[in-house]
């Protein structure tokens, strides 16, 4: 099947500006762009879904350009419920450099910054050369504006549409861009760009949007909706990413495979069948985690994530090093222990037992594990010397209750 049919099968096409896009995408040879504003210093998994389309289109013979909006990032596109906080020039510049480096490393595409041309436009030029092409009545009907009318929208946010449209026009003039790709929430801004190019240049440009990557409850992936899954390994470890995909909802895992991997239709359909028959095996989830993590961080990072997960699942904590312990338990508040302490006292101190008598009950019943080893000795001392790399002691009480001790 052609690239259009593949994108359609994967559920990656939501809106199209013209029916001829199907033929144009299948034919190849278009120069297109996709953009994001530098509101953070790393891309997240929501971006990854969108930017993978660039690679799919490139493999089909098109030329991608990634736009990181150093100019529009200083303004902020309208959120559904509130105005975005203004961020400093310095932060935007820092974020742009980080995102550019990350995007080039992951995808190898050309990256441009709209600050380079937006900064050259003065107020008179903005109103005379661009603003006159925008009908306020039409702008008010765009969903991105309409959804904010009840709560109020500032003029700055209102003009964001013009800036994004200007980007499309500028890239059409300077780089021959005839197609814009974006998430479905950008449809109003995209069509404004198509209209601007038609009015100023008398030629047709094209666009299509993709559905946003969402969880089962309908919320999208991003830093404003819960904990973000960052592509920067220093912000989200490969182990965290592995756990996220392994524990993703059964009802969404096939969609994620279509959105986030290059597995073929036949491979995904086989995994879908396995997931329907034996969801407890998590084969689709494991394939998803492997494909995404290997693409972003490489095979070694994926293998380490699997090893950490297997050690924790089997209780073999003693096979992990201190760094892996930090990764595994980074959401835990480590209890700092300054001196050698009896295990009974430790269990009470860290909240694993309500009293010393209860601590003794847990020990005698074989329900306490120190660094993966069962411990029943009432006289056992928790010391720096028997800690993992003399830094961490991991205590497990029962099957799932973990506690982390850091030795000073």
What do you see in this structure?
46% of the residues lie in helices and 13% in strands. It has 19 helices and 13 strands. The strands form 3 sheets. Strands 1-6-5-2-3-4 form a 6-stranded mixed sheet, sandwiched between helices. A 5-stranded mixed sheet has the order 7-13-12-9-10, with no helix packed on it. A two-stranded antiparallel ribbon has the order 8-11. Strand 3, helix 4 and strand 4 form a beta-alpha-beta unit. Helix 18 packs across helix 19. It is elongated, with a radius of gyration of 26 Å. The termini are far apart.
Secondary structure topology:
Blueprint: H1 3-9, E1 15-16, H2 21-27, E2 31-36, H3 45-59, E3 63-68, H4 89-107, E4 110-113, H5 115-118, H6 123-130, H7 136-141, H8 143-146, H9 155-158, H10 160-175, E5 179-183, H11 187-201, E6 206-210, H12 238-246, H13 253-260, H14 265-277, H15 283-297, H16 299-314, H17 322-328, E7 335-337, E8 341-342, H18 343-349, H19 356-364, E9 368-370, E10 373-374, E11 381-382, E12 392-397, E13 401-407
Parallel strand pairs: 2-3, 2-5, 3-4, 5-6, 7-13
Antiparallel strand pairs: 1-6, 8-11, 9-10, 9-12, 12-13
């Amino acid at each position: 099947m052609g690239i259009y049919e593949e994108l359609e099968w994967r559920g990656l096409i939501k809106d199209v500006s013209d029916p001829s896009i199907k033929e144009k995408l299948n034919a190849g040879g278009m120069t297109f762009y996709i953009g994001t504003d530098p509101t953070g210093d790393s891309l997240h998994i929501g971006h990854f879904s969108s930017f993978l389309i660039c690679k799919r289109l490139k493999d089909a013979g098109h030329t991608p350009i990634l736009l990181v909006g150093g100019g529009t990032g200083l303004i902020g596109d309208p959120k559904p419920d509130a105005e975005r906080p203004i961020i400093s020039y310095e932060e935007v510049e820092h974020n742009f450099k980080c995102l550019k480096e990350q995007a080039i490393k992951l995808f190898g595409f050309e990256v441009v910054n709209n600050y380079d041309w937006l900064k050259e436009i003065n107020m008179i030029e903005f109103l005379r050369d661009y603003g006159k092409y925008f009908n306020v009545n039409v702008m008010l009907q765009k969903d991105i504006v309409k959804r904010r009318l009840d709560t109020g929208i500032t003029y700055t946010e209102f003009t964001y549409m013009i800036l994004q449209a200007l980007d499309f026009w500028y890239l059409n003039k300077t780089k021959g861009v005839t197609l814009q790709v974006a998430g479905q929430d950008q449809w109003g801004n995209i069509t404004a760009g198509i209209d601007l190019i038609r009015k100023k240049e008398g030629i047709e440009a094209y666009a299509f949007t993709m559905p946003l990557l969402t969880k089962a409850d309908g919320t999208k992936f991003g830093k404003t909706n819960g904990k973000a899954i960052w592509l920067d390994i220093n912000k989200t470890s490969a182990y965290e990413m592995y756990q996220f995909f392994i524990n993703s909802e059964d009802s969404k895992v096939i969609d994620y495979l279509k959105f986030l991997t290059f597995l073929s239709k036949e491979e995904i359909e086989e995994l879908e069948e396995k997931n329907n028959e034996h969801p407890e095996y998590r084969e689709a989830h494991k394939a998803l985690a492997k494909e995404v993590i290997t693409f972003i961080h490489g095979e070694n990072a994926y293998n380490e994530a699997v090893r950490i997960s297997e050690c924790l699942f089997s209780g073999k904590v003693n096979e992990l090093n201190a760094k892996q312990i930090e990764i595994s338990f980074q959401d835990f508040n480590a209890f700092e222990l300054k001196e050698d302490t009896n295990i009974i006292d430790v269990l009470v101190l860290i909240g694993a037992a309500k009293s010393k008598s209860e601590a003794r009950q847990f020990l005698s019943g074989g329900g306490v594990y120190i660094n993966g080893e069962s411990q029943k000795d009432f006289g056992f001392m928790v010391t720096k010397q028997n800690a993992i790399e003399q830094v961490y002691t991991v205590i497990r009480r029962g099957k799932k209750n973990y506690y982390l001790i850091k030795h000073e």
